[in-house]
Amino acid sequence: MKTALVSVSDKTGLAEFINKLKTYEDLRLLATSSTAAYLAEHNLDVISVESVTAFPEILGGRVKTLHPKVFAGILARPSKDDRDCLAEHSIDEIDFVIVSLYPFEKKLAQGLSEPEMVEQIDIGGVSLLRAAAKNFERVTVVSEPSQYKSILENLEKSGGKTDRAMRMKLAVDAFKRTASYDASINAYLEKQFCQSESAKACDAKADAAAEDAPLGNLPSSYKLDLVEYQKLRYGENPHQAASWFHPTTQPGAASVEKFPPFAQLNGKELSANNIVDIYSLLKILRDIGAPGVCIIKHNNPCGVAVGKDLHDAYDKAYATDPLSAFGGIYGFTGEVDEAMAKKINVGFVEVVAAPSFSAAALTELRTKKNLRILQLQDYILKPAPEARLRLKDLELMGVILEQDMEASKDAAQFEVVTGKLDKAALADVSFTWNVCRHLTSNAIFVAKDGLGLGFGIGQTSRVASTKIAIAQAGAHAKGAVLASDAFFPNIDNIEEAAKAGIGIIVQPGGSIKDKDVIAACEKHNITMLFTGQRCFKH
Prior knowledge:
20 helices; six-stranded mixed beta sheet; Cytidine Deaminase, domain 2; single chain; Rossmann fold
């Protein structure tokens, strides 16, 4: 007779799995209290763990399975010495270990208190999984309900016994699960520690280290645990497989936020390209302020504006390039009402994202059954509370870990290097710069009165980007603000701006020809500001 130890928090499909398992094996069931009660309710004969150990569950359930009679039964090898040892101490071998851990990650998303979260840290379950996985030569370890189907298929294929390859694969999965689980706990406790009074000494040490690293104190090692959230129909192109993962810890911050950052209220499932575009949309919406609207195509905006209200902002953003707006991703910083929904429904739109929608707006938008409607979570349009790190996967060239760009900047922080800046123009300068820094390099962006007029995006020549942005802006470029994501290496960009009547230029500065560029602006009566920060995006 085989023995299975069962201790699960997620009981999905458990009774059905055990019943099918018993058709292949004469199976004795051992279980912890709540699991034993569940199995008994489903008419399965079960023995409590404490009746085997002759020791009760104690400390309010904190200690249930941590006993030699349990772990020796799991860890015993199929050798004469080990079996003689088991016989001497009246211990039975355990052949199946079926465990699902306390749902620490799910509870974390519920915003529980620290004492409540500590009680969600599974000790015995992790120990059981590790012990069973270590002894995969003999023991079958089950760490997720999603494995039930493949185990039963393997039993059918292998004549009623799991084969070695299956047991080894399950062991790998178990160690992955415990590693992921521990990473989530580590991240949570690290965040709690960093927010506590006891972290002051640690912070002082980190500050001292940062002084020796002027660009920031990046970690010498970095672990990122990813969990699949959703399989996608395909990737960037139809021939590429893809899945959408979320990190149990956010890069650069020991925190776990609710995922995804929106609820989908209508439409087809999101594609990989939708997800990437939504990310770009949210970054821009966060920076431009309210009331604001942005329309994204191919990871870049084709329309962006702020206005006196959301309707004003939408009308301006859409009018920038109605042709490119076809099939776009539309984002709003405020509630979409019925009148706005009617405007949106005039054309073809892939995604509409906003913090809220009126009931009438939802009714109107849902007349387009494939339109993806996303209601954004509150936190996503707020400045990130902590610095983020981001990864660039270069395949065989390794991975680059870098700081994310800092939060949006106010033009009042910029240096006026030529001309005079009217205070009334500060808002336009801030808007223009904070959109430009999200465009694909080389990037030039022209705007006026809170409206994006021209987008020069992704050109290998900066002057080419300048010409494209100015051409799109047309006659509206006169008196507008022009932003560049990097310094001007020559005066040719200034000459193009002057021809169009650009009134203000904002750029990082730092070129060896800054003096020539400043002189050219003075010649053409163009006010120029240096931000002191380049913002390439590739």
